[in-house]
Amino acid sequence: MRKNAHPHSGRAFTDRRWIPPFFASLLVSVTLFLATSFGLFSSPHGKDPLSFDFISFARMEDTSEYFVESNLKRSFGRPRNSKMEAPRIAYLISGTKGDTRRMRRTLQAVYHPRNQYILHLDLEAPPRERIELTTTIKIDPTFRQVENVRVMAQSNLVTYRGPTMIASTLQAVAIMLKESIDWDWFINLSASDYPLVTQDDLLHVFTNLSRDLNFIEHTPIIGWKLNQRARPIIVDPGLYLSKKSNIFWTTQRRSLPTFFKLFTGSAWVMLSRSFLEYCIWGWDNLPRTLLMYYTNFVSSPEGYFHTVICNTEEFRNTAVSHDLHYIAWDNPPKQHPRSLTMKDLNGMVKSGAPFARKFAKDDPVLDKIDKELLGRPKDQFAPGAWCIGSSDGGSDPCSLRGNDSVFSPGVGAERLKELLQKLLSEDLYSKRCSFQASNSVNRSVH
């Protein structure tokens, strides 16, 4: 009988390959049971064990907290430390061919160890100029020690009237957000800009201001600008070519948008970190929508940030309509700033503005500003309380660095404070982004 039995009969009892998986499963089950019993899955914040984030149907009436957009919005509204620490400013200084020395001079005039700096020399500059700029930054002992000055490695063509200037600015902002958490405002300057106050003056005055304020000159686009800027469609060759040229005009024209209201103003801004985080991470997609719209817009640097801020409820009331620059315009239609000279110095001082533009290369008025307004010796930093070295023999007192949280404000701080008091007065405050919020479009339906 046994000889005629099926060869595989009794395999279930003789094949022991089931034993290892069985004991492995048993071991995992026991481990999970013991872990649950002894609280190994308990939340480190005191929550109940095994408290996973499942959405309860009983709470579906308020589901906003489960969406990332709501978390982003809440992050921008977090209360700040009640202690008013001195601010830090992120600067972008831009230049083109032949601007290496001017960029370094402007950097020295606005330098402070608390701040962050990015230098962008556009693609029109030859490689030797970029190497020269990078080398001068690397060999400077102060820059090397503090490590707060960067030269943008990726150079871009920048056409002022096209969107390439916006692209370059947003790239610098993204780098600042990624590499440094310690800054409160962002300021863009060109090599033809120059300060009229020291950084001690600026940081001292801004210490007592809300970090949410945005200084951006803005006004709704009306009149001739609607036809000459909003309706034409242009192409910026800097986005596609390797050689700079003027923008291309197409024959097509477009209607005005109904989704948002257009604003325009100065391309020179001082923007808060919270607003720029929104421009980079914007939870409702408006910044990216407007970025695409302004890709084919005439003089888009004079409209992009302005339109974003004035169409965003969270930031609309933070916009102060001033670019913090003294600018002398040409004769009507006042579309181009003329170069400032010695005869403009009195007007610069009276304006209270912390910056001025534009200056011709090595104009004598710059030496006058260095001497009378900044106290800056040639080829040295504009001094501040952080400079504790000796100036004997013409040496730079800023070569020895002290406490960068201590300031020594001068008369420039008083001029700036007077300007800000005027800008932040109740009358001007009520005119920010001058259109009724009820007229704005509800973007959630788009």
From TrEMBL:
Keyword Transferase: yes
Subcellular location: Membrane
Domain of life: Eukaryota
Membrane-spanning intervals of the chain: 21-41
Keywords recorded for this protein, A-Z: Glycoprotein, Glycosyltransferase, Membrane, Transferase, Transmembrane, Transmembrane helix
Assigned GO CC terms: membrane
Stored Pfam families: Branch
Membrane-protein topology: Single-pass type II membrane protein
This protein's record includes keyword Transmembrane helix: yes
Entry-linked InterPro entries: GLCAT14A/B/C, Glyco_trans_14
GO MF annotations, alphabetized: glucuronosyltransferase activity
Protein name (record): Beta-glucuronosyltransferase GlcAT14B-like
